[in-house]
Write a structure and sequence with these properties.
With 77 residues, this protein is α+β, with helices and mostly antiparallel strands. The protein has one domain. 34% of the residues lie in helices and 21% in strands. It has three helices and four strands; from the N terminus they run βαβαββα. The strands form two sheets. A two-stranded antiparallel ribbon has the order 1-2. InterPro entries: DUF3039.
Length: 77
């Protein structure tokens, strides 16, 4: 089973000046790896290949990585 997770970006940008630390988009990741990453700080690999630690949970309506979504939909067929 998979679940969307945030992408973590360590680059400094305009969002830091506004105090907005929300991820730009969320990714699909194996559900079993979410808790491990959140607790241990390990990195997860999204369906699209993006690697990052879990730091936030998505809220309804959050933007989803288009590549992850496409891969997930192909897996569901």
């Amino acid at each position: 089973m998979t679940q969307t997770l945030p992408e973590t970006d360590t680059r400094r940008d305009a969002d830091e000046t506004t105090g907005d630390d929300a991820p730009k988009m969320f990714h699909y990741v194996k559900k079993a790896k979410i808790a491990e990453s959140a607790v241990m700080g390990t990195h997860v690999v999204a369906l699209c290949g993006e690697v990052f630690p879990v730091t936030k949970s998505p809220k309804p309506g959050s933007p989803v990585c288009p590549e992850c979504k496409k891969i997930y939909e192909m897996m569901s067929e």
